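Review session, final week

We close the course with one last complete record, chosen because it touches almost every idea we covered. It is Protein kinase domain-containing protein, a protein from Fistulifera solaris with 466 residues. Go through it on your own first, then we will talk.
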Amino acid sequence: MQFEYNSDYPGLIGQGQFIGAEARDPLEFPAVQPLPCARITTRIYHRERIATVENVIVRTVVNASRRKRRGSQSSNSSSDGFMSSSSSSEDDDSMADDDISMTADPREERAYWVQRTVREAIYGRVLLAIVLRRRYAGDNADWESTNERCAIKEMAWQHIRRERDRLAEDPIKEVAAMQYIKDFYERSIADDQPQHFVTKSFRSMLATNIMTPLDLLSDDRFLYSVMPFCEGGELFERLDLNEKFSEPEARYWMLQVLNGIANLQRTGVCHRDMSLENLLVHESGALIIDLGMCLHIPTQETQSLSVQMQNMTMNAATVNGTFYNSILKPAHSSKPMRYLIRPQGTCGKWIYMSPEIYKNQEPFDGHAVDMWAAGVILFLMLTGFPPWERACMTDERFKYMTAGYLVQMLTEWNLGLSSDAMDLLQRMLFLDPKDRLSLEQVLAHPWMLQPVPTPQQMIGGGGGFI
């Protein structure tokens, strides 16, 4: 395979020759409808005793008597096409469990017991919660706790409606994109083993290396995106503890990053905010999160979801004899022509931002901007410091590294990197996106084909490699 030019860039006609590719606006993601919910006080069976607890989020159907009292306020459809209903904002987000008519199927009934705030977010906060299941033991407990935890992104409707058009991060688009990706992949993953709710969901997410929702819920005040809780924190934090990764460690995590980007590309999604901070670690895997700035890439033929799935096959893959997540592969090589995307504004984190996104003057390729960010991620993992502060010519390191002097600079700094590692970094971080390697080319690069540690060789929590 050649490594001299981007083999996947729109407008390529062969041997490094490109014609001007048409640019269009991004597509809209299919609308999603969160299920109505309420924050309640209820009785649960927890640690071999029954207790009355607050802050339990439960899916609901408002009963007839309550709907009659509340009148038209019981169903409040927002201009975004989301239903923000089911709980009254007049009584501090709590109501008695007896006022709620629950979902019909007891096998699917679950609730979320909020424990604490993990961190603040742009539109609200992220909560840690315990997954509850319905209890039918006749002991006055309505729910029982499980050993499964989840993270709930709580976003205020008032803040969303006030700030959505002013900020680059769009929570409505984020949940729509996550649901779209989940729908695309979940039918393709074999599911023949009985597993707990969160465990089963984690299995499908780790196959794609993309975080998708367990539930989308809404009440009068908040939109809730319920996701698995990743025990390992951010990959950035793991790198910070180690200062930098060895080349085998960096290759291990890079394979997961690239698998996630590959699965985003298959669904036609450009993330636009790829970073170490947006990679969460769980057990031996990493998940891409925060799709609030993502775009749906326009293509010549946008196939329906069912047609796309018919053209994909699920394959279990290994790299150098070690595990690798199950990935979807095209049943045939043909794929719809991808358009460039018209400028959509400067967004993302400065050090990961590609020069075309930074300048925001010309159409850009959704695949190329994510692969640029992957190159910066790899640079950080191998060196322990960012390549530059901003992707602009006033930054001296950016100016010289992207002009072809990256290998020379890293060699002079005596960082001990292999020639293959430095060559890959240079080829991912050229100024012109037509000169950068595509995903397929990066995976075929000699550095990526070298040995990879197994999950058992990665020390839990510390990120070290034995």
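Two points worth writing down before the exam:
The domain at 12-28+231-457 is CATH 1.10.510.10 (Transferase(Phosphotransferase); domain 1).
The chain is about 30% helix and 25% strand.
Good luck, everyone.
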